[in-house]
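[Automated response] Your request has been received and processed.

Submitted sequence:
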Amino acid sequence: MKIKIAGIGSYIPEKKVSNTDFGEHVFLNEDGTPFGYPNQVVIKKFKGITGIEHRRYAEDHLNSSDLAFFACEKAIANASIDPETIDYIIFAHNFGDVKYGTNQSDMLPSLATRVKNKLQIKNPKCVAYDILFGCPGWIEGVLQANAFIKSGMAKRCLVVGSETLSRVVDVHDRDSMIYSDGAGAAIIEASDDETGMLAYESATYSIDESHYLFFGKSYNLDLDPDTRYIKMYGRKIYEFALNNVPLAMKNCLDASGIGIDDVKKILIHQANEKMDEAIIQRFYKLFDKTVPKDIMPMSIHELGNSSVATVPTLFDLLIRGQIENQSIQEGDILLFASVGAGMNINAFIYRY
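Generated structure:
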């Protein structure tokens, strides 16, 4: 038995924030001192490394669970199913609902329960729960849905990833320009044909790597030190990803029995353009191959890094023909992969 994505949907917020909008920000070093060069230099370097030109922020009156609800509605409609037939709602996020203008996370009740309520699903046997797995959370949710369906515990699952990272960033940290908001969702069910998941890989590295992403105080030392924001050791994450993600992708592909030349597209977490390109280069180097043209669709240039939402949103845009010069056909082999806080890595091979 295999599982397949029977429906997909995403929600991309309307509020568009350009790099130029950060021109007047007061960016500071970790010790609170100002940079020795203007923001225009910061922005230019940032664009060259990350590839990000724009990002989306949620409308002020919407929370992460609202974005997720919109994406789930689209996935359910795309799959043409009755939501009462969903056995599990698996909601991947990291920071809960953070109301605009505040910094307190709200996860009671669970965000999955909130989505079930918004969808007005009455069936009590539709079990709703959240998972915290960093940016790879949506893929991990798909792997859990795979286990539920193969074990007979479920026939159909709804897996959603949603974040409003713009509400947990330190505006004095230039890394804040990376993050964005959004949601992506999928209906997962058993496949009775040749389509679906062929193999998967998942891992957590937590000895030296567990705090590469963490909550820390603002670089503005005049602010309350007990108020925390998302922080990261970017260089350490970059090196970790390059050393571990390509191998995880190779192990996953080897387990599937699919040859490297048969992979048509790689849908990787939209974290950093240069990092993603380097991961793909190393992945193909493991097979003594050069990277094929247009193998890696990208959305980060316009949407930024919305954590758990990047991969399902990228897939949704791809199959709807919304990514320039990119398309997939029935029977194509896709490789999904992600890396993030944990540090966690996962991947799966999928026949479309």
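Summary generated for your ticket: The two ends are 15 Å apart (CA to CA). The chain is about 30% helix and 25% strand.
If you did not submit this request, please reply to this message.
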